[in-house]
Amino acid sequence: MTKSSAPKRHLPTSPFKAPVALPPKQFAVGDQVTHDMYGLGRVVSIEEGIAVVVNFGSSELRILSPYSKMTKL
């Protein structure tokens, strides 16, 4: 069996709190970032809501949204 990619919906009668939706990460050109896999880099260009292009020194990579492994420094 495979795991569904759709998030589970919260039932109003559930005794547990509804999951909090985090706001999407925002980056600007020139921001210094760190990536769990590629290390330290600088944002070169932005495709709104789709991806950012980051220069990691030896290479430029296109990182797709939701940027789960990337944080702004």
> Which word captures the global form?
elongated
Number of strands: 5
Mean pLDDT value: 90
Structural class: mainly beta
Structure, briefly:
By secondary structure, the chain is mainly β. The chain is 0% helix and 36% strand. Strands 4-3-2-1-5 form a 5-stranded antiparallel sheet, with no helix packed on it.
Structure description:
It is a single chain. The protein is mainly beta. The chain has no helices and five strands. The protein has strands at residues 32-35, 39-47, 51-55, 60-64, 70-72. It has a five-stranded antiparallel sheet, with no helix packed on it.
List the helices and strands and how they pair.
Layout: E1 32-35, E2 39-47, E3 51-55, E4 60-64, E5 70-72
Antiparallel strand pairs: 1-2, 1-5, 2-3, 3-4
For the structure shown, list the relevant keywords:
mainly beta, elongated, 5 strands, 5-stranded antiparallel sheet, 73 residues
